[in-house]
Amino acid sequence: MSFKLLHKDSTTRARAGVLRTAHGEIQTPVFMPVGTQATVKTLTNEDLLAAKAQVILGNAYHLYLRPGADIIKQAGGLHKFMSWELPILTDSGGFQIFSLAVLRKITKEGVDFQSHIDGSRHFLTPEKVVEFQKLLGSDIIMPLDECVKYPSSRDYIEQSLKITHDWASRSKTALAAACAGGEGSPNLMFGIVQGGSYLDLRKRSVEELCGIGFDGFAIGGVAVGEPEEILREVTEYTAALLPENRARYLMGVGMPLDMLKAIAAGVDMFDCVVPTRNGRNGQAFTLRGELQLRNASFKSDFRPIEEGCGCYACRTYSRAYIRHLFNTDEILGLRLVSLHNIVFYVKLIASARQAIVEGRYAAFLKDFMDKREEKA
Amino acid sequence: MSFKLLHKDSTTRARAGVLRTAHGEIQTPVFMPVGTQATVKTLTNEDLLAAKAQVILGNAYHLYLRPGADIIKQAGGLHKFMSWELPILTDSGGFQIFSLAVLRKITKEGVDFQSHIDGSRHFLTPEKVVEFQKLLGSDIIMPLDECVKYPSSRDYIEQSLKITHDWASRSKTALAAACAGGEGSPNLMFGIVQGGSYLDLRKRSVEELCGIGFDGFAIGGVAVGEPEEILREVTEYTAALLPENRARYLMGVGMPLDMLKAIAAGVDMFDCVVPTRNGRNGQAFTLRGELQLRNASFKSDFRPIEEGCGCYACRTYSRAYIRHLFNTDEILGLRLVSLHNIVFYVKLIASARQAIVEGRYAAFLKDFMDKREEKA
What global pTM score does this model have? Predict the structure, then answer.
């Protein structure tokens, strides 16, 4: 069994565990920085290790288009290509095919689309996507699914679920076939629960996927534009249905408080582009709320982004200096705030884990919310 | 005396020395990375220290406009503002006023111009420029001068020289006045030799400036579009006229071979935007010539930029990976090649110094030229 549950919080559903992968163990709950194109934007591996990142994400859709299978194969896989030695989870690209690609057409067989980069035509099946993720050498493979937008009709989601579940089953078979003859698969595979905002469809999805059997389960089709209450309702409802002895991953979420509330609902794993994307726009995360460092109010604020943070940006530079970098379009600004935000996210979730282990998660969550009420 | 000559090469005019500043000693010859806007583009101070940079440049024109005197003053000077503890040389901004600013008008009194950023009107005098560099806390102050474009008529340059020399004299007086009462100036000031491509005017400029007396001398008005032969002729001619017991700084030069030939002519200090600017365009410097890493020929080249380089980029990533970063517009690519190029430049000039100390500079220069003939 790849996942081991170590601690359960007494007053919430929060849990601490460890997920074993071919490139090492991941202590959960965990935040996974997003390295869509084989790079966590602006940061080196050294930066990520200093931030204590345990696992990063890659994206099969993007890597399939650039650099492409041929170069990844010659490099000896994604870990070698990007010189990252810790675990990598690769998203199948379902979300990207449905958000970036053009002229896409879904059939039972797979998805036909044109690249958002050069318009080239591609046809991907669940089997091809697994094969590509095997080639990447992903530690945690996500099967191809349809990530349905919000809002969608119940009818549409019911039809879509059938395809997603069929693809999940075919993906599992494809991985088993690819690993046949070896001693089991070095790659884990997670099932992705869909069902939109319809709780009974979420339940059906959990049942179908549990029937197929996976190393972990993701809650997909969230953070796609739905109201916050629906995100929380779907997360709490779905997490409670998932088997206790498997890791639970809430895809694409999110803001710090969303993650901490999801942890209270029993979620173990998170990824989100917010710390780097917002960082490149000058937004820095702190325990007392977000700061927009482009603002003139920081022009002679010589404090670090966050007192006591300990990241290189906070140890070395002031808000005033970083504001100057943004004001003069200097790339170092993007880098420093991205670094700080990744450190903040990783540390926040690691602190949440510590609180769970020490049986004080509810107090931790309350304290986090109280601090944000105070002025930054 | 701030400059101490330690070694003279036996077969060339190359020399090794040490320049003492308020923030420490600089071993010469030295390459000084350019941090125009209080940042060496894409790099942190940690990166610069790892590259063994001994001194960096700031630019008074840019820093005067942004963040401006008020913020620098509140920060306690440029060193504190950018958290850089080693020496800083600040250019007066003469070059920028004449290349970037609009509607400039030079009078004997000073220069009237509009900011290239917001069109705001400014009038700078040599005294104001010294005062601002004092406020920056620059270790090496450059006086305001007119950097004349190439080609310019002899008449124009003669007229311009009178102003430049008058401004040099006023700058020295202004620095002395600013330091009156203290135990001498903690800031060194260099004179800037102008005179275009007219050797007799260069000679006149050297004589005038030596008459005023400075802690070192810069050869200015080069690398402004003149042919390579003229750059070399002016450099060799002027360097030979300068006093032996003062540091010599060739402004804005240049390409690796240009620097090494200038060292053979007796130059001690260099600055150039090429390693970072070209690095951001994907051009990497190596002992076997330049590589354009955007090229498709590198897409499955899994060697480091330069074998044995030892910089973080070369220790960690391949040409193929960096090519992928440029191909996907990822900021990390700009950062990695900038880092490699700064390491290359600093190390190249440090190696030149070592060769001088060991009395083998001519062989070092020949070896450098031979290697570049071979294929990268």
Answer: 0.97
